[in-house]
Amino acid sequence: DQQVKQNSPSLSVQEGRISILNCDYTNSMFDYFLWYKKYPAEGPTFLISISSIKDKNEDGRFTVFLNKSAKHLSLHIVPSQPGDSAVYFCAASARNSGYALNFGKGTSLLVTP
Amino acid sequence: KAGVTQTPRYLIKTRGQQVTLSCSPISGHRSVSWYQQTPGQGLQFLFEYFSETQRNKGNFPGRFSGRQFSNSRSEMNVSTLELGDSALYLCASSLQGPADTQYFGPGTRLTVL
């Protein structure tokens, strides 16, 4: 059963605009959430994370928001750049399961000039 | 600092055979985790090794096994290959465990005919 879901397989955004990628989870034991970016023929690259004790974390153009009551997190990229075009994976982990990552199936982001 | 390396990058096997994949972590990283990526199931956690011991295991059959050496290099083995084992196998290393940032290798693409 998929405990982490990314319901949008793809997203297209114009350069300079905001990209919003969404992720939902079902396991209330998850206490650490991450976003990874993946280019073709490469492994996923860590982007940003958030602990369950926070509701927002920023790193440059990337901001992750966590809504624990809704079991929902989102990644905002502002402004979007063509180099951001990649597949974005949401992942969640729990201390009681050794922080093994549970991944969503990914959202393919295309940023057009 | 060199990243995570995986060998071989591509592999073709036939049903019933066995295969061994190798992962060299980033220098100084003691934890290695393995993941399987398929179009249907996405990225799924296989197991994690730390100090030559399997510390955590995902929900995969016993045909999937691994080990870690004293230099933190890790291998995973799949015996009696099935068509459904065709996937991208990714390894990730981290300093002490998955709670630390995990750095992924480029993966080994296994095709079972």
Describe the structure.
The complex is a heterodimer of chains A (about 110) and B (about 110). Chain A is an all-beta fold and about 110 residues long. Chain A is about 0% helix and about 55% strand. Chain A has a single domain, classed as Immunoglobulin-like. Chain A has strands at about 5, 10-15, 20-25, 30-40, 45-50, 55-60, 60-65, 70-75, 85-95, 100-105, 105-110. The N and C termini of chain A lie far apart (about 40 Å). The model of chain A has no long low-confidence stretch (mean pLDDT about 95). Chain B is mainly beta and about 110 residues long. Helices cover about 0% and strands about 55% of the residues of chain B. Chain B contains no helices and eleven strands. Chain B has strands at about 5, 10-15, 20-25, 30-40, 40-50, 55, 65-70, 75-80, 85-95, 105, 110. In chain B, the strands form two sheets. In chain B, strands 2, 4, 5, 6, 9, 10 and 11 form a seven-stranded mixed β-sheet that branches. The mean pLDDT of chain B is about 95. The interface of A and B includes residues 41, 49 and 93 of A.
Taken as a percent bin, the fraction of beta residues of chain B is over 45%
Low-confidence stretches of chain A: none
According to DSSP, the number of beta strands of chain A is 11
Shape of chain B: globular
- Name given to the CATH homologous superfamily of chain A: Immunoglobulins
Cα separation of the termini of chain B: 37 Å
Structural class of chain A: mainly beta
Provide key terms for this protein.
heterodimer, A: about 110 residues, mainly beta, Immunoglobulin-like, six-stranded mixed beta sheet, five-stranded antiparallel beta sheet, about 0% helix, globular, B: about 110 residues, seven-stranded mixed beta sheet, four-stranded antiparallel beta sheet, 11 strands, about 55% strand
